[in-house]
Amino acid sequence: MNVVITGAARGIGLGFVEHYLSIGATVWACYRSDKSGLNRLGSDRLKTVQWDVTKEKDNGFIKTSAFPDLIDLLINNAGVYGPDKETGQSLDTVTPDDMLRLLDVNCVGPLRVVQRLKSRLISAKGKIANISSKMGSCEDNTSGGCYAYRASKSCLISVSKSMAIDLSPYDVRVITLHPGWVRTDMTQHSGLIDVESSVKGMAGIIDNIDHYSPGAFIAFDGKCIPY
Ligand SMILES: NC(=O)c1ccc[n+]([C@@H]2O[C@H](COP(=O)([O-])OP(=O)(O)OC[C@H]3O[C@@H](n4cnc5c(N)ncnc54)[C@H](OP(=O)(O)O)[C@@H]3O)[C@@H](O)[C@H]2O)c1
Q: Which atom of ligand 1 is nearest to the CA of 11?
């Protein structure tokens, strides 16, 4: 099985790399700039590729020759939280630049990656897992604030749903996932669950992707999230 993971050098992305290596997959682990987190995973089934998901074609964009002709699973995991929730993402403090920057990384990034790798996913009749967040659910939003992160993850849910519909005729399955509240750098290692539990849950959902409707938004524990 050939697996491509973005934002793979730390946090949940690194957890996915470890999981898929442990079950015998060959993993193309994409990192933005620093791949030191991947160095300790000595495996000849681990390939590393530098890919900043905000880069455009004429600006150091990824060479797809780095990837295999058949991609069985793409995990669009790379993401940023942006400025502090209270001081940088409130109604008074959030800036247009931050709104656009987070949209670029968290939503346009996964779209760029799929546009670039689509033919290889179609050839393999592969799967795509887009990692959003419950914070992107409008129905679940009871506390307000966090404008840039919430909006970027909402947009990703929408983009992921369109991808699911558009790629369904090619037998490519697409799902949107919420990892839970996970102890990583993004949460300053607060959170309710560790990376291993989150990844184990999401990998189980990916294994059973046919049980879910195209573009469904599912949490690591299998619960369907209204959006
Ligand atoms: N942790 C949670 O509780 C939680 C909850 C809901 C959703 N999520 C989502 O889960 C995903 C992983 O989160 P995490 O907690 O593992 O976060 P993390 O520890 O902050 O790791 C984020 C990863 O994304 C990469 N990244 C950031 N910008 C990138 C870019 N422009 N191009 C390529 N890679 C980029 C980072 O690379 P660098 O090392 O180069 O910065 C890093 O590898 C994110 O999409 C996040 O929004 C997390």
A: 16
User: What's the CA gap between 180 and 50, in Å, rounded?
Assistant: 27
Residue nearest to ligand 1 atom 40, measured at CA = 32
Distance 132 CA to ligand 1 centre (A): 10
Partners of 178 in beta bridges: 219
Mean pLDDT for the chain overall: 96
pTM: 0.98
Q: What is the pLDDT of residues 100-141, one digit of tens each?
A: 999 999 999 999 999 999 999 999 999 999 999 999 999 999
In the chain, how many domains are there?
A: 1
Q: What is the pLDDT of residues 156-181, one digit of tens each?
A: 999 999 999 999 999 999 999 999 99
User: Which pLDDT score is estimated for 95?
Assistant: 97
Residue 227 within a domain:
no
Whether residue 61 is predicted with pLDDT greater than 90 in this model: the reply is no
Compute CA distances 13 → 35, 57, 69, 184, whole Å: 12, 24, 22, 10
Q: Is residue 224 part of a domain?
A: no
Helical residues (DSSP H) of the chain, grouped into ranges: 11-22, 85-88, 96-103, 109-124, 147-167, 195-207
Question: How remote is the CA of residue 8 from the centroid of ligand 1, in Å?
Answer: 8
170 is a domain residue: yes
Containing structural domain, residue 211 = 2-219
Confirm if 205 and 220 have CB atoms less than 8 A apart. yes
The reply to whether 110 falls in a domain is yes
